[in-house]
Design a protein that fits this description.
heterodimer, A: 396 residues, Immunoglobulin-like, Rossmann fold, 8-stranded mixed β-sheet, 12 helices, 28% helix, 27% strand, B: 321 residues, alpha/beta, 7-stranded mixed β-sheet, 4-stranded mixed β-sheet, 11 helices, 46% helix, 19% strand, globular
Chain lengths: 396, 321
């Protein structure tokens, strides 16, 4: 049974009519650059006034656009220059609790460049570089993503072996909890795009903190990587075989793992979520826990192709087949997706289907996009639901 | 008051950083050996070097966790019975939780209804009474399960258990004090009961912190006000050893209690009255004597209007009115 879809909450401030943005008072004062200096002094940028958010950029240019990845809004929106100043601005209504990644597109003659917002210190890194991050009204960076000096640090160690399924070496990193003992048995979490989760979703810090807080149990985590993720993660049979018939036995042989499906979890984001889900489908009953973030679960209601292009062809085929005959493949599935990403449609569509099979499903939506900090921010809720920690029983 | 015959029971906050146990031991003039119980740490039970050093090398670890494991190996019938009883207790806890959460929900709804104040006050009392009754029924069921288990399997008379009990009694006889560390409170409580530690505490000083302090009180209350899932309703787990009476011990309030949530604190205090609810942050401690508490340092008493204050005790022991 579904544990009810959890949607972002609308607190009163989100529903209130936006107050008049401060930038309008500035404009009415016929400002010069000196007035702009005073106006910006001490203000956080972008200027968040309840649901009203004003993006600003200063400088000489022929045009400035806001580039963002909010599905449902124009991907490029022009900022307006205030006459007699070098200040460009754009005011948008951004719902409560939102987090939005963006860049500015600066046009000077024929030359166009994308830059991070120089006035906003909030950055979100990803494998392609970094974006500026707007923290909308009501959004707070969770405290459990910061290193905690009280939290005992776990250990990361490299692993690697030859995969017959792929005909090549596969490598990754193993996380062992701080007080790891060979005499104790642990649940296993296998993470797709492991290096990215470590680098951009600070997952080692998150694990250290959640374990320290007893919100999840001590666990062993295998951070895996793929040299060709767009192919191998796209419901590729070899990948399922690699995880279940090679990686799992290898880890079971050398680590004290609990030998039951409820103690085995696959997780991933985007294509990584497809890889996790399709592996569980190919080996039903083996992986009793799934954590799927912004899964690229593309499907078609008619025809065999999908608007997303040929990279998704194999996924469409796989998801269409599952939709025709949904079966229970795991026991508990935690899904999350940002409402500002186009995949929200596919993810929302999958929830009732999974639910109908009798699996326990929890689906959480966030006012965020297809990015690593969105996936980071959902880790506490997902991991603690899949693996409840002993916090009610341990007092030390 | 103290239900058992210990000389004094010292309840302490967490000892992981800047421990205060040594100071408490010195102030009570304990000079001899100290029997330590770290069974709450489970398989890490013997990693007690820091504790041993902190008490100047005077400790003897009773190894209750390891002894229990040995008993389970050597007496498989008892082990099977133990597992069965634990499964029963887990069911009890689950069903108790269902009743409790509904009663707490009802209390919350009633509390927030608009009605004349005299009716609301009367209904609030009825809500608390209903919750107390659920707690009482749960404790009664747990007690009955324990009694049935003890009557049927007679743990103290089973040779392997009797042997360990005798060894432990011999060790404790040579000690002036027993120090009980925190950890997994259910597991710890189990081992304390299995080896009859309450009886061995007679004429000894008892020092207990975190789960240890909870286990030596009359009633063990599980709590966490900000869990990652759900509301985190306080749950009665079971009866404790009863060495410290009329107190509900709430360790690690720094991150487990929301002291600013007055409505919630108020319900908790009224629910467990007349026992006093004591939040015990790190470095706090209080000594429980037969005629009442003494030497309170940094302990926070929760009040029945939902506020809190420094826990004050009379000079000679006893509560200030």
């Amino acid at each position: 049974m579904s544990n009810a879809t959890k949607r972002p909450s609308n607190r009163p401030s989100a529903l209130m009519k936006a107050a008049r943005p401060a930038i309008h008072t500035l404009i009415e004062s016929n400002p010069d650059n000196e007035k702009v200096d005073k106006f910006l002094k001490g203000r956080s940028v972008p200027i968040v006034e309840g649901p009203s958010v004003t993006f600003v950029w200063r400088g000489e240019a022929d045009g400035v656009n806001l580039r963002h990845w909010i599905y449902g809004l124009e991907t490029s929106t022009a900022l307006t220059r205030i006459p007699n100043t070098d200040l460009w601005y754009l005011t948008l209504d951004i719902p409560h609790g939102s987090r939005v990644e963006y860049k500015f597109e600066i046009r000077r003659g024929d030359r166009v460049e994308w830059i991070e917002d120089p006035l906003n210190p909030n950055r979100a890194r990803d494998p392609f570089g970094a974006n500026s991050a707007l923290h909308g009204d009501g959004y707070e960076v969770p405290d459990w993503v910061h290193p905690d000096s009280f939290a005992r640090p776990g250990h990361l160690e490299p692993f690697g072996f030859y995969s017959k399924a792929f005909g090549g070496k596969r490598t990754g990193k193993l996380y062992l909890p701080a007080r790891f003992r060979k005499t104790r048995q642990y649940p296993l979490l296998v993470v797709h795009d492991g290096s990215d989760y470590l680098n951009y979703a600070v997952m080692k810090t998150v694990l250290d903190n959640l374990i320290e807080r007893l919100e999840i149990p001590d666990m062993i985590v295998a951070f895996t990587d793929s040299p060709d993720r767009l192919r191998e993660y796209a419901a590729d049979e070899r990948h399922a075989r690699f995880l279940t018939e090679e990686l799992l036995p290898d880890l079971t042989n050398r680590l004290p793992l609990l030998d039951r499906p409820q103690a085995r979890c696959l997780m991933g984001a985007s294509f990584g979520a497809v890889a996790a889900f399709s592996t569980a489908c190919r080996y039903p009953g083996t992986w009793g826990r799934l954590l799927l973030q912004s899964g690229s679960f593309a499907f078609s209601d008619i025809g065999k192709s999908n608007r997303r292009g040929p990279l998704f062809d194999n996924i469409v085929k796989f998801v269409n087949k599952y939709r025709e005959d949904p079966k229970p493949i795991s026991e508990r599935i935690f899904m999350s997706c940002g409402v500002y990403e186009s995949l929200i449609y596919e993810n929302r569509s999958l929830v009732p289907l999974l639910d109908s099979t009798g699996m326990q499903v929890k689906f959480v939506e966030a006012r965020d996009g297809h990015n690593w900090e969105n996936w980071r921010d959902r880790l506490r809720e997902g991991l603690s639901w899949l693996f409840p920690g002993p916090l009610m029983f341990i007092y030390e | 008051m103290i239900a058992g015959d210990a000389r004094a029971v010292v309840l302490l906050g967490a000892q992981r950083f800047n421990p205060t146990l040594g100071q408490a031991v010195a102030e009570l003039g304990v000079q001899g050996k100290i029997a330590t119980i770290t069974a709450g740490w489970q398989e890490r039970e013997e990693e007690d070097e820091d504790l041993h050093r902190h008490l100047d090398g005077r400790t003897v670890n009773l190894r209750l966790h390891a002894r229990a494991e040995e008993i389970f190996r050597k007496d498989p019938k008892f082990h099977a019975a133990h597992r069965k009883r634990q499964a029963i207790l887990r069911h009890r806890q689950d069903f108790y939780r269902i009743r409790l959460e509904h009663a707490l929900d009802a209390q919350y709804v009633i509390q927030n209804r608009a009605a004349p104040s005299d009716i609301l006050e009367d209904e609030a009392r009825a809500s608390i009474q209903a919750i107390r009754e659920i707690d009482r029924m749960h404790l009664e069921r747990c007690r009955r399960d324990w009694q049935e288990f003890d009557a049927r399997y007679r743990p103290a008379e089973r040779p392997v258990i009797a042997e360990h009990r005798a060894e432990i009694a011999e060790i404790v006889k040579d000690c002036d004090a027993i120090a009980i560390a925190g950890g997994h409170v259910a597991s710890l409580l189990n081992r304390l009961r299995l080896f009859g530690i309450a009886e061995l505490a007679r004429d000894k000083y008892v020092f207990a912190w975190c789960a240890g302090a909870m286990a030596v009180s009359e009633r063990v209350v599980l709590f966490h006000h900000s869990p990652p899932q759900g509301q985190g309703a306080e749950e009665v787990l079971d009866e404790g050893l009863g060495l410290a009476g009329n107190v509900v011990v709430l360790p690690q309030p720094e991150f487990r209690l929301r002291l600013d949530d007055h409505e919630r604190i108020q319900v908790m205090v009224r629910r467990f009255a007349p026992a006093v609810c004591l939040a015990m942050p790190a470095r706090s401690r209080v000594t429980w004597l037969k005629h009442g508490p003494k030497d309170s340092h940094g302990v926070i008493a929760l009040r029945d209007d939902g506020s809190n204050e420094r826990f004050q005790v009379a000079e000679a022991g006893g509560l200030h009115s």
